[in-house]
Structure formats: C-alpha cells, structure tokens
Amino acid sequence: MPAPEHVIVGRIRQAHGIRGEVVVEAITDDATDIFVDGRVIVAGTVDGSVSPGAQVLTIRRAKPFKRGWIV
Questions:
Q1: pLDDT of residue 63
Q2: Fewer CB in a 10 Å sphere around the end CB: N or C, the chain?
Q3: Nearest to 56 by CA among 37, 39, 42
Q4: Can you tell me the distance from the alpha carbon of 35 to that of 25, in angstroms, rounded to the nearest whole number?
Q5: Which residues fall within 8 angstroms of residue 6, CB to CB, at 6 or more apart?
Q6: For 29, phi and psi rounded to 5 degrees?
Q7: C-alpha–C-alpha distance, residues 20 and 32, integer Å
C-alpha cells in the first residue's frame, strides 16, 4: 500500500486570543516534531481530504496548552 500524501496531525478546537492563534488537539504521537516554528501544514476537512486550492498554513509559533497546542 503506498504512503498517503497527507496525514491528519491535529484538529482545531477553538480560536485563542486576538493574534490569529488557535488551540489544536494533536492527533499524533510526534506533536513536538509536528507543531514547530516554520512547519508548513495544509488545512483539510474532518474526513482528512484535501481539496485543490486548500489553505496552506505556516506555523509561526507553537506551545503546549491544556492537552493541546496553541498554534
């Protein structure tokens, strides 16, 4: 079976603050390797699909927060 092109690594739970940050629930064992400054991620749907023209996001800062991450 070929490796998937995209992998779900988290789910946005809610907005946080006034600087565009969100609280993300990590769905990976490697959260400290995924949610790091400079990492590029693609916003997908709840079922894991990514449509053409999906929003590409770059993490500017991330820190652990209440069983999740502020990104």
A1: 93
A2: N
A3: 42
A4: 11
A5: 42, 44, 48, 50
A6: -80, -15
A7: 21
Instruction: Identify the pLDDT of residue 8.
Output: 85
- The pLDDT tens digits for 6-63 are 788 898 999 999 998 999 999 988 899 989 999 998 888 877 788 778 888 899 999 9
Pairwise CA distance, residues 57 & 17, whole Å: 18
pTM: 0.78
- Residues 43 and 54 sit within 8 Å (Cβ to Cβ): yes
Determine the Cα angle at 66 with ends 17 and 44, to 5°.
70
